[in-house]
Q: What sequence folds into this?
């Protein structure tokens, strides 16, 4: 809420400023990608950083990357820190994940990556063999995408001041010709599309996490999505209205963010949500909603209805989009809300994750 | 997925719904006892699909919600001790005590850990012999065997640094209390399948007979719930009042004898305080004499606690069914799943959270704009229960 809003007299729905103790310190849930994260951005970070200067947010909802105008050239920029535990997990590791995460954030603004910067914070005692393995994986992932790592930084902190290794990647990208994408551009009548099955990354981390006693052969879906986005923009152009990669907070958060930023409603069908059986089993065991589980290799897109079929065909021509599917549609009713038609034909609200689900997922 | 997808099949669900519509000739009021069943009903929107006359009332079967405030404050006090590692299930960590909750304690430096099994807590105690590991055990009869096994395991290992803060409550005494209330409107129960998997259903037979009320032991998947409703409505329509078992794949009449033996060795039945309801005679577990050494309440003599419910919170009325969440001034404004004032807004099985997550508002409309025509405010006087929705969505 901005200072201007506070001067208005309409306090409908305003919350009583209770001295809730949990707001006095950072909680793990503030990093969950759900409601607490959104509040931290809105109340603490964005006000201090000059939010509303034109880049990075739409109706208070942050974009995955900022669109800059550098002497008339549209440039997209994004940064992301990776703290995943364990460092090595089925389907990837912190090195490849750090490349894919930032490449995908650029892609969600319709950009292909030009260059990456990498920073390490390493805990004293971290095995050099593991550092070599992480760095080799990071280098290989960047090479596979075709993006050079052009600068970086390395810091070492005392034992206990970090946990193994934390990686930050920053990327700049070139906006694809014809791309005009923003979380705020969804319109009533648009088609909501999902590029593939959900929940694999979060479930893989869950099964790799020591102490949970849950073993499975689920591998993370961590992979770059810039090729997929390039194909989508080539076939759909300006009809690609909004894109998100549903990482922390899952598909539910991604859809809620689009609904909030665009001030539209979204309706999806439960029977259209592709949940792999092993992911469904893991979610049932741990009481998780697959729509809240993190992904690192799929995207949700909101697409104009006249190009939706063409875009879906283009997506399905690539391995990372082979299972692309229609999830639902954008509606004018219930703006800011995501509603799901259940398997049985009832309805329910799909809300953002509250608090923490599983910390250090990425 | 085998053994799961079969119980979520939309075609079979439509068949059961059609059968319920066919069988129903007059209005009936049913209560699902367990919060897990409430969760399925709300998540799948089952209450919207039932005949207009069938009203589902949410029972008091959310263990997180009925755990007394005093016990939560005890957990907070124990967690505040530097030698303690306090372990519990995730939901319990967000329940507000008088002044704070366990997650906030953790942010301030207390060692509070989420576990998925009490045996994980035993493992932590083995790994940290220099620390006191306390498991905060909440639940109905369902989780009692696992908690008993954890204590027996710690006993076998001779673990001196493991103890349990027990908040176990029992279903049949709560049902008796509900049925004894003069304004009770419940005409049939869906009993909690998991509870019966452990305890069997012999305890329900005298209840059904004495109060002339159908009781259907019911599972938790959508088809289980629908079949349970169908069986209960059939009994009501035919004027029968029996205990029937819908959950045949998991429950038989005598229950799980080995599990009951473990419970009996470690726990004894005694009076228990229920948050919002009060003390119900012989409605919970405490340690038997043989195992009192594992009782965290005595190990950490926590004294001088002054408990105070948040003044705006009407959790007591919610749990006793005298008010609806939508009657509460704090509901959806000050009190949300993000900033819960009371337990029913915390657990996904809690009635306030179930209402809130389904987008139900004070006006009786969902925020999706659908009108819930059959929704009445008359349901607010039921004891121990809540009316949610009876409408079929036009």
A:
């Amino acid at each position: 809420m901005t200072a201007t809003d506070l001067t208005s007299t309409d306090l409908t729905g305003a919350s009583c400023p209770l001295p809730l103790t949990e707001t006095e310190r950072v909680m793990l849930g503030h990093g969950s990608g759900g409601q607490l994260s959104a509040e931290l951005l809105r109340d603490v970070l964005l006000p201090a950083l000059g939010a509303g200067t034109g880049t990075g947010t739409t109706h208070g909802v942050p974009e995955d990357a900022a669109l800059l105008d550098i002497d008339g050239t549209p440039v997209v920029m994004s940064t992301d820190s990776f703290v995943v535990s364990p460092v090595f997990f089925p389907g990837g590791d912190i090195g490849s994940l750090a490349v894919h995460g930032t490449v995908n954030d650029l892609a969600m603004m319709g950009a292909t990556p030009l260059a990456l910067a990498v920073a390490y914070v390493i805990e004293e005692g971290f095995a050099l063999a593991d550092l070599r393995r992480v760095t080799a994986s990071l280098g290989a992932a960047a090479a596979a995408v075709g993006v050079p790592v052009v600068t970086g930084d390395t810091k070492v902190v005392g034992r206990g001041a970090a946990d193994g290794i934390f990686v930050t990647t920053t990327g700049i990208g070139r906006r694809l010709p014809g791309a005009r994408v923003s979380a705020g551009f969804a319109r009533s009548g648009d088609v909501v599309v999902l590029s593939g099955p959900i929940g694999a990354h979060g479930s893989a981390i869950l099964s790799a996490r020591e102490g949970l006693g849950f073993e499975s052969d689920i591998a993370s879906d961590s992979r770059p999505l810039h090729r997929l986005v390039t194909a989508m923009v080539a076939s759909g152009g300006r009809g690609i209205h909004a894109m998100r990669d549903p990482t922390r907070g899952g598909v539910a958060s991604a859809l809620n963010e689009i609904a909030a930023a665009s001030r539209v409603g979204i309706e999806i069908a439960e029977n259209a949500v592709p949940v792999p059986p092993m992911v469904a089993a893991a979610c049932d065991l741990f009481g998780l909603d697959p729509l809240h589980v993190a992904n690192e290799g799929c995207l949700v897109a909101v697409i104009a209805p006249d190009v939706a079929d063409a875009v879906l065909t283009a997506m399905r021509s690539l391995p990372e989009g082979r299972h692309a599917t229609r999830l639902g549609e954008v509606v004018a009713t219930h703006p800011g809300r995501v509603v799901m038609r259940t398997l049985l034909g009832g309805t329910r609200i799909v809300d953002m994750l509250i608090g923490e689900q599983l910390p250090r997922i990425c | 997925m085998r053994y799961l997808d079969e119980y979520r099949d939309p075609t079979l669900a439509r068949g059961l719904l059609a059968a319920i519509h066919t069988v129903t000739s007059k209005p009936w009021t049913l209560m699902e006892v367990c919060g897990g069943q409430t969760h399925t009903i709300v998540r799948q929107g089952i209450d919207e699909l039932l005949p207009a006359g069938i009203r589902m009332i949410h029972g008091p079967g959310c263990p997180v919600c009925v755990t007394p405030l005093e016990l939560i404050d005890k957990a907070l006090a124990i967690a505040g001790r530097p030698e303690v590692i306090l372990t519990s299930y995730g939901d319990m960590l967000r329940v507000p005590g008088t002044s704070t909750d366990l997650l906030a304690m953790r942010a301030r430096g207390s060692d509070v850990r989420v576990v998925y099994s009490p045996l994980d807590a035993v493992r932590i105690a083995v790994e940290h012999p220099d620390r006191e590991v306390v498991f905060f055990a909440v639940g109905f009869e369902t989780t009692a065997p696992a908690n008993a096994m954890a204590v027996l395991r710690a006993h076998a290992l001779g673990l001196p640094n493991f103890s349990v803060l027990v908040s176990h409550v029992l279903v049949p005494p709560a049902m008796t209390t509900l049925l004894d209330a003069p304004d009770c409107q419940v005409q049939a129960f869906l009993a909690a399948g998991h509870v019966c998997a452990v305890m069997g259903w012999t305890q329900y037979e005298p209840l059904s007979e004495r109060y002339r009320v159908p009781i259907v032991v019911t599972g938790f998947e959508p088809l289980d719930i629908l079949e349970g409703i169908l069986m209960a409505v059939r009994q009501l329509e035919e004027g029968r009042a029996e205990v029937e078992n819908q959950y045949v794949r998991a429950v038989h009449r005598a229950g799980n004898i080995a599990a009951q033996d473990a419970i009996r060795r470690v726990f004894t039945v005694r009076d228990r305080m229920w948050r919002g309801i009060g003390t119900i005679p012989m409605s919970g577990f405490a340690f038997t004499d043989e195992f009192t050494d594992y009782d965290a309440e005595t190990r950490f003599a926590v004294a001088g606690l002054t408990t105070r419910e948040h003044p705006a919170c009407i959790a007591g009325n919610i749990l006793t069914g005298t008010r609806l969440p939508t009657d509460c001034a704090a509901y959806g404004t000050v009190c949300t799943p993000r900033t819960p004032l009371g337990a029913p807004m915390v657990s996904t099985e809690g009635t306030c959270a179930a209402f809130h997550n389904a987008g139900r508002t004070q006006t009786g409309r969902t925020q999706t704009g659908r009108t819930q025509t059959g929704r009445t405010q008359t349901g607010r006087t039921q004891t121990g229960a809540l009316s949610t929705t009876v409408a079929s969505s036009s």
Notes: Residues 1-22 of chain A have pLDDT under 50 and may be disordered. The radius of gyration of chain A is 20 Å. The CA atoms of residues 92 and 220 of chain A lie 7 Å apart.
